[in-house]
Predict the 3D structure of the following.
Amino acid sequence: YEFTNFEKIRKGISTYILGTGAFGEVYLARNKLDNKLFAIKQMEKAKLSAMGIKTEQIKHEIQIHMKLIHENITRLYSYHEDDNAYYLIMEYAEKGTLFNLIQNSKGMTEEKAFKYFIQVANAVYFLHNNNLMHRDLKPENCLIDSSDNIKLCDFGWTVECNKNRVTFCGTYEYMAPEIIKELPYNKLIDSWSLGVLLYELIHSYSPFRVNNNKSG
């Protein structure tokens, strides 16, 4: 998984972009040694610095994600760093996000919703058994692979469960009351977010509405 072994997939003259975020983009790449496809998450250091994200936080996310080997968690195989950015070499989930699936569908059968929910719950159960809480469960952070299976991703807010936490983080519609009220909380906040996710899978919209989504 040496970074030099990967080449960007082009769409015309442009890089094939899988997604964009506040810190950079995720693009499709091919390993030149075996022609397998991967997703590379590029996080630009200037943007991270402007948002107050420290190097230690990025390294912490990478260290946690590298250890997460589970059938319903996006695999992080390796990473590369240069003067401009961090590059996370990850498993490619070609069917996109659960969020897009919900938005583009006219409703989901209970059987399908149950399948996706159980797979997300399995990933969360694995995290909790390894003394970790995700803290930002939402459809945007659930990818779908070619076999129609969930792959949980984005572990930027993931921390150890060795003590109660007070950090205000996540996405408003999925935040547990303890976070919103700025009270100490533990891994059970993920269970609240799972409940919101289940509702959204069944009804195609969140039970809670806000004027804007903010992570902090």
The CA atoms of residues 78 and 104 lie 32 Å apart. The two ends are 33 Å apart (CA to CA).
